[in-house]
Structures are given as structure tokens and as C-alpha cells.
Amino acid sequence: MASTSDSTPVNAAVEQLLRNPEDNLEAISETADLFKALATPSRLKMLLVLAHGEATVTHIVESTELSQPLVSQHLKFLRGLHLVGVNRIGREAYYSLKDDHVAHIILDALAHTIEGHEH
């Protein structure tokens, strides 16, 4: 497996992108959209809740202290970016992260921030 200069493992597709970023501007654009999604404290709080597992809108509202309309609006946005999925059971909707990559990005960024404040 290839790696970046700081020994972060990457797959072959990412290695190719690192060598020739102009070859896949769509992937770069979608990655920028991911960072835009993570750029608001409200969405970041919601994604942290979902990093623990599936949650209903009610649970997300209670955990984040955000309003229900705002949570619903953000969930729609996050679903549009394919970061969050929904599993409907009866009348209840359970939201979850589509994959663990998003949780890793958030947790790595938080660790970076916290460690930066300790030095």
C-alpha cells in the first residue's frame, strides 16, 4: 500500500490522484463538499452523535440541543452528500453514518485540535 509523506496509508486510486490531481477534479470537488459539510458546528455535533451509532431525529435533537427543524434540514443536506443514511422501521426513521471514514475524519480533526491546545 502506498502512503503520503506522513505515513498515512492510501489506496491505489488515491495515490494516482496525489500524483495527478487534475485527472480527477470530480473527486476533489466532492472532497471539498465533504469539508463544507463538516464546516458548521451544528452538523459536526450531529455527525458526532451519529458516530456512536444510529439515532432518531428526537435523539439527535436532545443530544445536540438543536431545534428539530434545523436537525431535519441538516440531515437532508447530509443525506444529499451521501454522508448519512436512513433506515425506516415503521413510523420511526433511524439515521446513521454511511461509512466510518466520516467518523475518522471528525475524530482525527478533534484530536488535532485538542492536542494543539495542549502544547
UniProtKB/TrEMBL annotation:
UniProt entry keywords in alphabetical sequence: DNA-binding, Transcription, Transcription regulation
Domain of life: Bacteria
Keyword Glycosyltransferase in record: no
Domain HTH arsR-type: 23-117
Pfam families: HTH_5 (PF01022)
The protein's name in its UniProt record: HTH arsR-type domain-containing protein
Organism per entry: Brevibacterium picturae
Lineage: Bacteria, Bacillati, Actinomycetota, Actinomycetes, Micrococcales
